[in-house]
Specification:
The complex is a heterodimer of chains A (86) and B (249).
Chain A lengths: L4 H15 L7 H18 L6 E4 L2 E6 H15 L9
Antiparallel strand pairs in A: 1-2
Chain B lengths: L2 H28 L7 H12 L3 H9 L1 H22 L19 H23 L8 H19 L10 H26 L30 H25 L5
Helix pairs in contact in B: 2-3, 3-4, 4-7, 4-8, 5-6, 6-8, 7-8
Classes of the chains: A mainly alpha (86), B mainly alpha (249).
Chain lengths: 86, 249
Amino acid sequence: MIDFIGAVVASFVLGFIIGLRIQRLPAMIYIVLFLVILVLSYFVGDYPFYTFQVGRDILPINSVLITSYLGIVVGSVLPGGGGGSE
Amino acid sequence: MKFEEANQYRNLAALAAFLIFSGVILHTFYSLEVIPGISYLYSLIAPNIAPNAVTTIVFDFRGYDTLGETLILITSVITVSVVFGRGAFIEEEKAELKHVVPTPIQAVFGTPVILVLMCFGLLLIFGGHLTPGGGFQGGSVLATAFFISVVIYGVRKNPFHYGHDFLIGMETLGALIFLLMGLAGVAVSGYYLYNVGSNIWGYGLVGFLQYMDPTNAGILPYLNVAVGLEVFGSLSVAAVFLAEARKHD
């Protein structure tokens, strides 16, 4: 269960809007960056209380940082505003 | 539609918007009820609205002031565009920073760092009502990320295709969200920028403007997003204009 569903959804949407104008990058960059973001979100931790809650356990991973990144990736991968691949 | 005709419609729309906005502000001031010691009361109830009391003060208690601050940004961007924006509209002097070639380190690390910075900016925006941060800081980080890309790649060959139209659209959208949130307060309670999603004073509640969050922040996170969009658009447009500026006689 995620308590902060509003921030999670809104960060994905805003990331998507911002990512729409970003050029599509090679897939390897997205994968490596996702791992970097995972590490970063672990170190950021529960900075503004945004964590994943699974049952009674709270994963010390920042959820909004991850959903923002996913939104940017989805927005930039889609064809259109970004102007195609590099 | 000819340009003159479109310009007339635009002027009419601007006049209507100005009249509506002025009427709302005047109505709010007319029905204003000054409560002695309101500042003391707000300092007591602020933690009941959002954990970050500064956000409550900035966006709830003195929302007018914040609205003015955001509109200052638009004015400053207009000034920058008037002074430095000529290069963007002269075809033969297009502002390409032609000498900009990313170094190998910039080419490898530039885009990933910018993307991570953008994620961090979004995190700051959405944490504004909980901890120190918010629209101004998050929008500044987003604009800084874009400006780094302009410094590395220039304007024309930038993988971050934020043109004038998109950035001005972001800026306008942010200001519009802020103003419409204020109008929702007028419709429900008679007070401009009343926090209709929190309803701490009992004047009326708009259910769908309650932020999905364990806090009672109401419209404050939406105002944070609006300010974030506006700051991002404003500072980025200024950055683009400055990057495109050319020396003229």
